[in-house]
Specification:
With 106 residues, the protein is mainly alpha-helical. It contains five helices and two strands; from the N terminus they run ααααββα. Helix content is 66%, strand content 11%.
Length: 106
């Protein structure tokens, strides 16, 4: 897996339910599909599917503890996404500043 976020990271974050799952995990430190489903308006099987998408995107990690599968957030993927967005914003700021300079000189 590469360090830079792939499109699936942003696609996973775009879904409101997955965003809520990620938020709940970040607030609690970890959780199971059952505990998460208790706080969401979706079924446990739906939560499992959302967790699978987050896992494929590298945003959560699953660890088996006995019969339970506990999920935790992988903050490095979120950090990489934030850096990519900051780089993109900086590039656009530079372009807009260049356009402004040209407009003021012309």
């Amino acid at each position: 897996m590469t360090a830079a976020p792939a499109p699936e990271v942003f696609a996973a974050l775009a879904d409101p339910t997955r965003w809520r799952v990620l938020t709940l995990l970040a607030e609690r430190g970890d959780g199971t599909a059952t505990t998460l489903a208790g706080e969401l308006p979706v079924s446990r099987p739906a939560v499992i599917k959302h967790l699978a998408v987050l896992d494929r995107a590298g945003l959560v990690e699953a660890r088996r503890r006995g019969r339970e599968v506990r999920y935790t957030v992988r903050p490095e993927r979120l950090d990489a996404a934030a850096r990519d967005l900051a780089d993109l914003a900086a590039a656009w700021d530079a372009r807009l500043a260049a356009i402004k300079r040209m407009a003021e000189e012309g």
